[in-house]
């Protein structure tokens, strides 16, 4: 069994166990309450979120000698997110994006762009959990601090690449700010999903739960984003009070809203198809 198939199987297994334990009724009920307002919010918030992520990628890629115009970066990022959200594995879009913009160097740029964004997300999660320690009273915060330590070791292992792409004087402020905006956009969409799912909890309760669920999406054992996110949401929501059922329902609604939010990537894919077909039509004529 290939590694990619194994990741998909594990993701399906996690999702299946979670749904089996909490039931599908709350999920279906939450999905039935997703309205136009929630969908519109997800689509609108995805615009600055995607632009910031594309800008971050452009800055990181430039440090490695790959020049990607911002307009091209935004279009490529929408296409990448759509492929990540619809193709099992969750990384097909990133691989495609890197391959089209420099192959080896382009792939490295994508890796460090995504890694820097996740490092900022991890740091934000640690800060929020430290400020609200009742959310994870036992091992949660030390676990995340350990994640930060591992991230730091990875940076040291690849220091020349990181120094040129992420930590350069003109790069790191952009990486930091754009990553914060992206995290804020995803967290806001998760809060809207919780509202659509009927979760009755304060912002102080929901924000750390949102960040934990979003962090779980970086675990490679998922099926188009579903799997670990629902598992972590079930556990954390149950620990704080709203309940595992509402956690799973919120995570699933968030997943649906996330897919809808990147549907503009279909326009990019359609434009790619037209560019490939047009020369053939001209040659035929």
Can you tell me about this structure?
By secondary structure, this protein is mostly helical. It has one domain (40-272). Helix 2 (25-32) packs across helix 12 (244-261), helix 3 (36-63) packs across helix 12 (244-261) and helix 9 crosses helix 10. It has helices spanning 3-22, 25-32, 36-63, 70-86, 92-100, 104-131, 140-157, 159-165, 172-196, 203-216, 228-240, 244-261, 265-284. Mean pLDDT is 82; it is low at 279-285.
Secondary-structure map with pairings?
Layout: H1 3-22, H2 25-32, H3 36-63, H4 70-86, H5 92-100, H6 104-131, H7 140-157, H8 159-165, H9 172-196, H10 203-216, H11 228-240, H12 244-261, H13 265-284
Helix pairs in contact: 1-11, 2-12, 3-4, 3-6, 3-9, 3-12, 4-5, 4-13, 5-6, 6-7, 6-9, 6-10, 9-10, 9-12, 10-11, 11-12
What is the arithmetic mean of pLDDT?
Answer: 82
H and E order? HHHHHHHHHHHHH
The beta-strand count equals: 0
**Secondary structure: helix percent:** over 70%
Counted up, domains total 1
Structural class: mainly alpha
- Could you describe the largest sheet, including whether it forms a barrel? none
* Uncertain stretches: 279-285
Question: What is the molecular shape?
Answer: globular
- Quickly count the helices: 13
Distance between the termini: 47 Å
**Radius of gyration, whole Å:** 19 Å
């Amino acid at each position: 069994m290939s590694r990619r198939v194994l990741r998909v199987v594990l993701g399906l297994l996690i999702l299946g166990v979670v749904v089996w334990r909490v039931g599908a009724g709350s999920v279906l009920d939450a999905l039935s309450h997703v309205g136009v307002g929630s969908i519109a919010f997800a689509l609108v918030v995805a615009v600055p979120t995607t632009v910031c992520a594309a800008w971050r990628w452009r800055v990181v890629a430039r440090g490695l000698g790959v020049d990607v115009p911002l307009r091209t970066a935004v279009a490529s990022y929408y296409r990448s997110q759509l492929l990540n959200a619809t193709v099992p594995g969750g990384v097909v879009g990133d691989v495609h994006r890197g391959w089209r913009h420099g192959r080896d160097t382009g792939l490295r740029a994508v890796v460090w762009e995504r890694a820097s964004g996740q490092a900022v997300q991890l740091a934000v999660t640690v800060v929020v959990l430290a400020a609200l320690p009742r959310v994870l009273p036992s091992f949660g915060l030390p676990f995340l601090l350990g994640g930060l330590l591992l991230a730091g070791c990875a940076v040291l292992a690849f220091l020349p690449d990181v120094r040129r792409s992420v930590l350069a004087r003109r790069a790191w402020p952009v990486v930091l700010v754009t990553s914060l905006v992206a995290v804020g956009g995803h967290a806001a969409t998760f809060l809207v999903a919780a509202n659509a799912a009927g979760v009755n909890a304060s912002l102080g309760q929901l924000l750390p739960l949102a960040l934990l669920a979003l962090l779980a999406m970086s675990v490679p054992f998922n099926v188009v984003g579903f799997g670990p996110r629902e598992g972590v949401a079930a556990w954390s929501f149950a620990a704080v009070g709203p309940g595992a059922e509402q956690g799973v329902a919120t995570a699933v609604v968030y997943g649906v809203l996330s897919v809808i939010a990147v549907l503009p990537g279909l326009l990019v894919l359609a434009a790619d198809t037209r560019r490939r077909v047009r020369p053939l039509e001209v040659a035929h004529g």
